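Consortium newsletter contribution from the modelling node. Members have asked for a concrete example of what our holo predictions look like. Here is one, prepared for the zinc ion complex that several groups have been discussing at recent meetings.
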Amino acid sequence: MDKVGRHISSSGSIDKTVDTARSISCNSMQIFASSPMQWHVRSLDDEEVRKFREKKRELRVDPIVVHMPYLPNLASPNKEIYEKSIAAMKANMERCDQLDARYLVTHLGSTMGEPRNDALRRISSAINSVINGFGGMLLLEGQAGQKNSVGSQVEDLAELYDHISHRHVGYCIDTCHAFAAGYDISKEEVLDRMDAVLGWKNVHVIHANDSKFGLGSGKDRHENIGKGYIGRDGIRAFLNYKDISSKPILLETVTDRKNPDSSEIELVRSLIS
Ligand SMILES: [Zn+2]
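And here is the predicted structure:
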């Protein structure tokens, strides 16, 4: 059975995200465990956690993916930011385990103009310092190629993967980011090339987003499915490559936050043959 869902924004008790997901026919979803624009990772109360886990089971929204907030920078050359970023990752891993979320997706941060190799080393040692004991799987997300960002090239992702001393690590591929980074994900030969470096078997979550800008633009601007430069046929070709459609496919496109609807979820399902 397909696992199609979207990022669900939460306000108030976190268990409400499961209701929202189910109401728009998602059987998987992504959430933030705390406010994405704050350093503080709020604690969850026991009742909230109990309700979340119960609803997840009853409404069969599974797997749950937690996305790291935006402020942490695991590549930061600034010691204070670096330490805070590690602490934020550890707190998010704890939230994942509390919520029985299977995956934690993280961006790899920015070199801030410092050498790439030092940035990669900081990221892997940050992850290595907190990953032991984490019950879920950490997924390194490919980036769009914005200035100084780490992880837009599959070789960077693979190098980090090799330096993480834990088998509970994998990748999240975002169709918009990959396209913006120069990978035409509608083409089989491009996906084969990514396979040779990453192994699609190690890609556990797909972020399905169309792109507001063209191939190789380096811009991380999501567009609704079929309305951007990848296009409906491009997304369809991607979703039907090898076993991609067996992975959780999560939208991060614009929707009415208060009143999300299921049409884009159904559109994605209809593209899978
Ligand atoms: Zn992301």
